[in-house]
Structure formats: structure tokens, C-alpha cells
Amino acid sequence: MMDTQQITLKMKASVDGIRMKCHHTAASHAFATLYIWQEGMGLSIHLEDGMFAVRCRWRGENAWFFPCGEDHLVRRGVEELLLEKDLRLCYLREEDTAFLEREFPGRFQITEKESDHEYLYHRAEQVSLYGSRFSGLRKDIRRVEKLHRVSWEPLCSKNISDALIISRAWHRQTDGPEGLEDMAASERLLLEWDALDVQGVVASVDGEPYAIVAGYPLSPSSFDFSLSKEKSRLSGLSVYTRHALACSLSDAYTQINAEEDLGIEGLRNMKRLMRPDGQIKQYEGRAK
Known about the structure:
Layout: H1 12-21, H2 31-41, E1 43-48, E2 51-56, E3 63-65, E4 68-69, H3 71-81, E5 88-92, H4 94-103, E6 108-112, E7 118-122, H5 123-128, H6 135-147, E8 150-154, H7 160-172, H8 177-191, E9 199-205, E10 208-219, E11 222-230, H9 237-248, E12 255-257, H10 265-273, E13 278-280, E14 283-287
């Protein structure tokens, strides 16, 4: 089996450099995503010049993110992975499925994974919230502003401790293993916020730091919304904080990626409520 190792911060430039060279802008393969989720998803990485592949024990003993890199290296990597039984390739974009069908005809059963689709939004629309499509979001923001004294400030060294307190308070109310996995990812994101190029906003309600929304760049023009937590659920506050983060970003970011919904109804409803403009469709390939 392909050798892997722990994902460390020193790999960031190499991993994201390979992604950019290959024009791979999905959140699934971003270094920050892999780094923060390595504990919750059982991730380890094979990294070489021009290619990386990520093993994902959460999806199976021989489950891997589709390799990212130069075509000939990806082809060689898939050939090596096929030497082990029950190979499962995850997070394939449409161009990745085309690669498998071209290079390995008849070797894989490919299925669409709706729960892995990544939601995309025009940042300008998320800032302006103009038109009838966004009337519900505007009402949510007006409601929370009417009922409470709300404000926000950019995530920085002075309020990172507040962000951690908010995240931990949210997780104390979350039951089940999904919450525990998400907690580890949230902790890594906030503790290493500077090294991971994280940007975010901390929102206060009636003078108390109460909510955090944060993410990281996927490309020079695309930004990932990765983290959204509140001390306790407050109607309209998540809409307010997501809008604040969209407003705070540089105009260089024209697209927002809100990641997948994992098949969880609440997440799906929230992401659809934001009025997506499109999706990065994701697929899975199982060796026959």
C-alpha cells in the first residue's frame, strides 16, 4: 500500500502549490481542510513532487481522496492503489471521473455522492442580498438587529480566545460522535488560525462575544466558509454572521464555497437558504 504520514503544517505550501498548478479549487483537497479534519476523518497523506494522495480511514480501510497532481503521477498512484483490494476513491470532481473512465476503462463503478457536493455562491450577491431571492435573509438580519444589540469584528489575536470559548460552548450542547469530530476540527482551525490563513468574524450580542464564522482561501478568487458556531442558537444570528464575513472579505474573492452538507438535513437547509449559485459535484469510484 502507498506509504502515508501525518499531515503537518510544513506541508502546506507543497499541497496547495500542487492544487493551484492543477486548478483544483474544491474545498475537499485544500490543505487547511485536510489538516483540521485529519483526526476526525482518520486522514494521512502521501506527498511527493507533483502529486499527493490522502488516505481516509473514515470511509474505509482502503479509501482515498482522489489523488491530486500531474496526470502521469495520478495514473501511477491509482495503479498502485489498485494493488490492494476494495479500493474506494472519494471526492472525485467531474473531471476526475472522466480521467478514471479514460485511463482505467471498466475498472471502477462511479456513483454521484450528493452529500459531498460543495455549495457555491457569488460573493457579491451574499454581500448585497439584493432581490426577492434574498428577502428571507434580509428579514433574519433585521430581526436580530431589532431584538438585540449586535456587532462584529474581524478575527484577530485579541479575540481568538473568545472564538475558542464560543466554539467549545457550542460543542457542549452537541450530542453524538459528529459533534466530537467537528470539535477537533474546530479546535485545530482556531488554534492554528494564523498559519492556516484563516479569516473570520466574531459577533457580539448585547455586549457578549456570542458567535464565530471563519474560513480560509481556496484560491486567489475563492474563499471557504468552514466554521460557524454560536454559544447557543439565536434566530437570525448565523445569517448575520455569515453576511458579516462575506462583507469583510477582500473584493478579490468573487466566490464563496460553503462545503458539503454531509446528508444532514439541517446543514442542507441552511446552505440552500443562502441561495447557492451552483455546486462542485462530487463522485465516488469503487474498484470492480
